[in-house]
Design a protein that fits this description.
With about 270 residues, the chain is α/β, with parallel strands linked by helices. Helix content is about 25%, strand content about 25%. The protein has two domains: about 1-195 and about 240-260, Survival protein SurE-like phosphatase/nucleotidase (Stationary-phase Survival Protein Sure Homolog, Chain: A, 3-Layer(aba) Sandwich); about 200-235, no CATH class. The strands form three sheets. The chain has a nine-stranded mixed beta sheet with strand order 3-4-2-1-5-6-9-13-10, with helices on both faces. Helix 1 (about 15-25) crosses helix 5 and helix 2 (about 70-80) packs parallel to helix 3. The chain is globular, with a radius of gyration of 20 Å. The mean pLDDT is about 90.
Length: about 270
């Protein structure tokens, strides 16, 4: 089996090494990813413009490639140029952050997997929800830092890929969206559906004193220039029982959502 691994956090992100380590005993692994962070770029593709492709090494010394483009660009370049043969599977991740609900179409991680599907390659998008309430630690100087590991995400990803090798993808499923919490209470994977949304979004401007710390500009209005605005978001915390968000945030267990790239709705009989 030949697996192409990409991501949206960049080729030097620790999650891409974790993904490689999770499956390197099961397949020949190739790593091609954006050369820098490309979070939340969706399925952006760079057409008829130069992309720089550079060889590099992961932290364990294994070879990889960085592409000066989007996650979707990296999948195309990896599958159609770097690899001599078409990959049997594309893995996107392990993303450091949650990717659930119908908001996944903005995710570079999930859209890299969607791009693979458009090339005729089944895919898995993998994300690690780093719970801030349990992952922050303080050092001896009182400085805060994040402490987490990819161990469960690697184990679940390994088991899913092994199952795919032995049984193939289920009928009607093009890709899986896997989310694993750092604060898990159960290692048992739950098959879920996409919840309605992940983020509650809003807009603030540069006069918002309450959220002044979010701005890098003075909190004043200048009549000679446009107002500064910023889109902000908070995680939704209420989900129905069989959704990805419920598994992740309420049951605190891995969520596996089977997806199909065909977004057609067939419910317009008498519209």
């Amino acid at each position: 089996m030949n697996i192409l691994i990409s991501n949206d956090d960049g080729v030097s992100a620790p999650g891409i090494l974790a993904a490689k380590q999770a499956v390197e005993d099961l397949a020949n692994v190739y790593v091609v990813a954006p050369d820098k962070n490309n979070s939340s770029v969706g399925r952006r593709i760079t057409l008829f413009k130069h992309l720089k492709l550079e060889s590099c090494k992961l932290e364990d010394g294994s070879p990889a490639y960085g592409v000066s483009g989007s996650p979707a660009d990296a999948v195309i370049v990896g599958a159609d140029y770097v690899m001599d043969i078409k990959p049997d599977l594309v893995i996107s991740g392990i993303n450091q952050g949650v990717n659930i609900s119908c908001d996944i179409t903005s995710s570079g991680t999930v859209c890299a997997a969607l791009e693979a599907v458009s090339l005729g390659i089944p895919a898995i998008a993998v994300s690690l929800f780093i719970d801030p309430e349990t992952s922050y630690r303080q050092d001896e100087n009182g400085e805060w830092y994040l402490e987490y590991d990819f161990d469960l995400a690697k184990k679940v990803l390994h088991d899913i890929v092994l199952k795919i090798i032995n049984e193939g993808f289920p009928d009607g499923v093009d890709l899986f969206n896997l989310n694993v919490p750092t604060n898990y209470e159960s290692e048992e994977v739950k098959i879920t559906h996409l919840s309605h949304r992940m983020l509650e979004k809003g807009v603030i401007d540069n006069t918002n004193e309450e959220k002044a710390d979010l701005f890098n500009y003075p909190l004043e209005k200048n009549q000679n220039s446009d107002d500064l605005v910023m889109i902000t978001s908070n995680l939704v915390r209420e989900y129905d029982e069989n959704s990805d968000g419920y598994a992740l945030f309420v049951e605190k267990r891995p969520s596996l959502t089977p997806l199909n790239s065909n977004m057609t709705s067939m419910k317009l009989k008498n519209w």
